[in-house]
Amino acid sequence: MHDVDVIKVEVPRDATVETPWRLTHLTRAKYYVPLTSARDDLDEASSVGYTVSQAHETFEPGSDAYALRVLHQVAVTPLSIDLTSRVDFQVLESLFRGRDEPGTGK
After folding, report:
1. What is the pLDDT of residues 62-102, one digit of tens each?
2. Quick check: is 68 in a domain?
3. Quick check: is 99 in a domain?
4. pLDDT confidence of 22, banded at 50, 70, 90?
5. How many domains does the chain have?
6. Domain assignment of residue 55, given as a range
7. What's the CA gap between 24 and 9, in Å, rounded?
8. Would strands 49-52 and 32-35 be described as parallel, antiparallel, or unpaired?
C-alpha cells in the first residue's frame, strides 16, 4: 500500500485471542521516560533504563499509546519511512526567507 512501509503492532501484556485491535496513529506524547543513572564521570559505564509513562491523560485518543495503555487493546499503527513533514512548503519557505506568509499579511 502506498505510504505504508512498516506495520507496528503492540500487544497488551494481558491480551488474549479475544482482545480487540484497532488502527492507530503514533503518539507524540512522551511514552518512555528515561531514567538517569548515578555516576560521577561520563567515562564511567552505566546502564540505560526507562520507565513507561503513567500519565494516561497525555495520550491522545486514536493513538497507539491510548489503545494500549488506556483501552488495553492491540494497537496496529501503519508507519512510513518518509519523515518529510506535511507542512505547506510555501509557508515554510517564506518563513525561512523572512517574508510574510502567503495570504496572511504576517
Report:
1. 999 999 999 999 999 999 998 888 899 999 999 999 876 56
2. yes
3. no
4. very high
5. 1
6. 6-81
7. 10
8. antiparallel
